[in-house]
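User: Please predict the structure of the protein below. I'd like the answer in structure-token form so I can feed it into my own downstream comparison script.

Assistant: Understood. Taking the following sequence of 261 residues as input:
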Amino acid sequence: PRPPTPTPRSNRRQRQMCIRDRFNTDNIKFFTYVDSDMKAIRFVDEGGMERVLKVSDLDQLILHDPAVAERRGSSDNALIRVAHHQKSGRMFILQTKIGQYKPDELVETLFEWDKEHNPRFTSLEGVAYQKALKYFIRMIADARHIAPPPIREYSPGSKKSKDDRIRGLVPLINSHLMYMLPSETKLLEEFQHYTKDGRSKRDGLDALAQVTEYFTVGWNQNTHDDAREKWKAQIRGLDATGYGQRRSSVIDRRSRVRLVG
């Protein structure tokens, strides 16, 4: 039998699914460093105002998705330095190193970034190869008689696939809270060409997806203040018994009694 002819509704649904499987890179914002010392960043906020932030005032982390990356076509090593501005909820991708390079070069870069920028910690995914890399980092630090970079094992859990973790970045991008350098073309291309079929490069995205575990995406001081005001308004609407004056509250209370009974 011939396959059914696609209807306009099914075509529209397929297009919607295709859009959900991709990132809208138009929502990604960009910033620049004020000086060559990279101690301050300049960007334009949602209202069109130019703003400057000191990097030292941001909560910095290093995210790492290790790979052997010793032959052409294998997975890339990805090292990403990110920072979070807690008051506004913005996240800045300060620096990346994504490509085909050996683990010893990656570890050297990790030591350099840790010494120069003093991040809160470096996040490593806690699986077999990454655990060995963590031991290797400690061994090098002991040989050099220095303190090893603070390491935290990232455990995504068996319930979340790699694509699920990467798709967790969508709210961050859609809320216009993620900023990156225009020169970070490799990571930008991963966003532009990402598909769920696994054919596109996504090692940088996999490393960046760890950020949702450590930073509260989209929850900033403004949303906190709005929630607090709504809570105060609800309190003012209660009577001495703790129930609201409106009839809807009485109905809700009765429905709760019926459910319990």
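That's the full token string. Residues 10-19, 246-261 have pLDDT under 50 and may be disordered.
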